[in-house]
What does this fold into?
Amino acid sequence: MWDLISNSIYASILLSIAIGIIGSLIVINKASSITGSIAHGSFGGIGIGIYLGVNILLSTTIFTIILAIILAFITLKLPSRKDSLISVIWAIGMSIGILFLSLSNGYHADALSYLFGNILLIDKSDLIFMGIVDLILLISIILLYNHFLAMSYDKEFLSLRKINTNLLYTYFLVLTSLTIVISVKSIGIILILALFTIPALIAEKFTKKFYQMIILSGVISLIIMISGILISYFTDLAPTPIIVIIASILISFIF
Amino acid sequence: MKAIEVKNLFFKYEKEIILENINFTLKDKEFMAIIGPNGGGKSTLLKLLLGFLKPLKGEIKIYGKNPKENSHIIGYVPQHTNFNLDIPITVFDVVMQGRLSKGKFFYNKKDKEIVKEILNNLGIYDLKKRKIKDLSGGQRQKVLIARALAIKPKIIMMDEPTSAIDIKGQKEILDLIESLDITRVVVSHDIKILLREVDKIAYVNKKMILHEGPKLNIPKDKHFCEVELIDFLKVNECGI
It folds into this structure.
């Protein structure tokens, strides 16, 4: 049993670190729709990667970072049109993915697996990439903890302190896009948003300080993912929907 | 010493002129109240003074420099109602934000001492571990004033500091503002501010009418009361 699920347990641990940090930042910055847009838009990177025959992780990383920068620009420069344009980026990304897939030869079941994810299919190279992204996130949150918290609370005040809040916000979205890339294969594009936000929303209710929210959110996501993997293993059901259903049951008790 | 100098200031949003030919100066440690009707441009003027907006025409100097260059000496107090209260953040964490600056990633011992002293002076030290969400409107406003003071500013600018606060809280906030020994600019729709020891009153409704001391006695000042405040207050006399 351990041989079959060991990688998925390691992945759960690494993902919960990333989700604890980024999920908390998404919730306090009210950036769920932007995250949904980057997550769905990332399908464009997957489609391009398959079409060009290059590493999908690489093509998706580059594509989602570009999407994050575009979305940061829209949010900061066109706030009154933000809501509609986020949806447009959401659809454009997915359309690019579908277009390039249809231009590729053959049937691509692997592309569809990115839509729904399967944490039981994670391999060693995925774990290494997750570890690298975790390291970037941990260094960023340690160095920029006070800046991120101040930006989330009052961006105007922070800008008076001569801190480049636009750059900081863009960096936050780039970190979000990296977390999406490492989560796509495990959780799937469609369900990423639920796992990013539900643990953070629960943690927000029970914490007084932001670092406590990050830690609690990470622990909750780890418990949810491991429970989902075990239930999936013993019932032979797909793990991602089980993970999201567990998370949804939890949050229904909170709100 | 001139704390603020505004010359021939114009501001336009899309095609509409919001502020027209605004001129005034404020000396160091003076207290200025900006009043006027909603949509008259008083908050826009504050945003221009803070450097958040760029003028269409004219010049703004804060202690001799443009607002962006001198933003580090400005303590800004926004409206306490404009915040996401669900963020898990304590009073101490909010006030510490006043000690952040470019290139500074961590707070030091001196920052913590400064913040403790300010919390003590404002009488909110006991609240330092409380979550912002659990405070009253007046307490939240005091926290935002404390954060602005943590900068050690030369000038403090406040946007509607008494809005959505009970009467007792309003008095406490106005007493606090009056007691500060720095330059103060307060935007308010609440005319109770005029009963305070203000050095200058700017009535802003696209254009500005400036009323200045040496010591203002608003109810007795017929020109100001009858000509300007009547329109603002929609009454026939100054019922202050």
